[in-house]
Each structure stands twice: as C-alpha cells, then as structure tokens.
Amino acid sequence: MPAAPPKSKKPKLNGYVPARFTPLETWTHDVCALGKCDENKTPDRPRMEKLMQAGLGKMKLVFPNKKASHSEFQSFLEEKFPRLIDGGGIEVMRAVGGGGGQRDLHLVAPGREGYTLAHVKERFSQATVYIRPLQTDLDESPLSNEVNIAFHNNYYYPVRMMYTF
Q: What's the whole-number mean pLDDT along residues 14-28?
C-alpha cells in the first residue's frame, strides 16, 4: 500500500499575502510645559491647574515625525504651547525619584544636534517629558474666555481641560 501524502497543517489560501508590520512614523507621549526658567520640581495639583489655565501644563502629544530635528521639535512644541515662543528656547527635563507628591526634575542634556525627537525619545520610555523655558519666564495669566468649549458628561469645559479627564 503506498504511503499517503503528509497532510499540511495549515490550509493554503490562494492569493493570500500576509500583511507586513510597518512601524508608525509618529510618537505619542505626555509632555508638560512649565512656566518658569528655574522650576526644578514637578507641579502639584494647584500649580498644574494654573499652568493649564495659561495654556501650558500637561498634554498628550502626537509628534508627526519620529526623526524631527531640534528646530522641528521646538516648532511643534511652540505650536501646541504658543506661550513657549516667548521663552527664548527650551530645556528638556525628567522627574527622578519615586513616591508621591512633588519630585525633583533633572535636566536632560541636549545631543550634538540639540533636542532632536530621536534624542528625546531615546531617553524617555514612559516618563513625562517636562519642558521649561530657557531664557525668560512665561506669562502665566489665564487665557481669555474666548476659548473653544467641549461638552462632556453634561458640562461644558474649555477644550484644553478635556485632557485631564
């Protein structure tokens, strides 16, 4: 009796081409813009609320280009936090130490080409990126009441505040 041909374990699908994984060209991360040149602690809740009202504070950003240069990185941040324009440049910082409450912020040294997105991405896996102005303190007065509002849970909020929910 001739041996039966071995059965294939997976059925063959004619014309099927498996999808290839292509990594995204974007990078999503939490960024917190601080208002003072000498801030060296993470903001507590009242401070964060003041920063948020001033158009600064914490926001989840989607950087469109993982290979952005220093100028592209800074321009993108200034687009999202317009008051950073008056700061005369930026410094990138990260929180160190554990525990609750305020933590110390340590400066992340820029690379040879400045704060490129690849340089920042390499140093921050899940930690929040803290940005502070380099030369002058920023205006922290609340933004005008003419901001766009969004409806959430039967309440109206400034769109900027929606990031806190």
A: 75
